[in-house]
Amino acid sequence: MTKNYSDIYEQTRNMIGxxxxxxxxxxxxxxxxxxxxxxxxxxxxKFKELIALGISINAKCEGCITIHIHDxxxxxxxxxxxxxxxxxxxxxxxGPSVVHGAKTxxxxxxxxxIKTNQLIERN
Length: 123
Known about the structure:
Shape: globular
Strand content: under 5%
Helix content: over 70%
Distance between the termini: 5 Å
Structural class: mainly alpha
Number of strands: 0
CATH superfamily: AhpD-like
Largest sheet: none
CATH topology: AhpD-like
Oligomer: single chain
Number of helices: 6
CATH architecture: Up-down Bundle
């Protein structure tokens, strides 16, 4: 696999930014939903990001996966928590979630390598 998930993350954020310029009213509303939905409450924001990641895997949304794995890491999610989230998504989503779960694992390894300034081997 020769995808660069940090590039997909940046491209997705740029595309969302372009959409916000074209449709500011909708994206302002969506941004508010995101802010409210991702803030700490009974569930800490880290766990909300893990839930969003699992849903992203089942929705087969590569851009969503990169955004939520990045944000989960930023909010303190551990490697093991993310791997278990992948497993739960597979449990709930079957075969298609296995493929997107594998992509998510690769994205996790890439973001961890970037954070520690290490290179990863691409297969």
